[in-house]
Design goal:
Layout: H1 5-22, H2 26-29, E1 33-39, H3 47-57, E2 63-72, E3 75-83, E4 91-100, E5 103-113
Parallel strand pairs: 1-5
Antiparallel strand pairs: 2-3, 3-4, 4-5
Length: 138
């Protein structure tokens, strides 16, 4: 049975994110990101180099965890958690990626600080099944 384009694209994005954010293998990551990559994120410099340079500037403790992932045709959305980035709280992010010819060509994101149980009015964690272990403010 052959894979759908959506399942191939989801697997590609998960492997690309793990390679760059967790393994920090920049040479391997170049296979996943187009040299003409378009970055729509307000906190990242343009292009693939902007993204790679940002990751190089973040402590090696950075960890990316993927959660829910959905895809339709050439678009993939991953709900994930970025931790260990030297900011006071984790980020919960919806990364939206467009794929073309088997590489990531365009990216948007929606970023929110992860709430603690004390901060959460819903009392449901924003990511996974448990709340982060840090106290309010760090």
């Amino acid at each position: 049975m052959s894979q759908t384009i959506e399942s191939k694209n989801k697997a590609l994005v998960l492997e690309a994110f793990d390679t760059l954010f967790n393994k920090r293998d920049y040479a391997a990551a170049e296979r996943y990101w187009s040299p003409h990559y378009i970055q729509h994120s307000a906190h990242i410099e343009p292009g693939r180099d902007g993204l790679f340079n940002l990751i190089k500037s973040i402590p090696l403790t950075l960890k990316y965890e993927a959660g829910t992932i959905v895809a339709e045709k050439d678009f993939v959305i991953v709900h994930g958690r970025y931790s260990g980035h030297s900011l006071p709280v984790n980020w919960i992010v919806a990364d939206i990626v467009r794929i073309k010819d088997g590489v990531l060509v365009e990216h948007w994101d929606v970023i929110q600080d992860e709430a603690t149980e004390e901060q959460s009015k819903s009392k449901a964690p924003m990511f996974g099944k448990s709340f982060p272990k840090y106290s309010v403010g760090g």
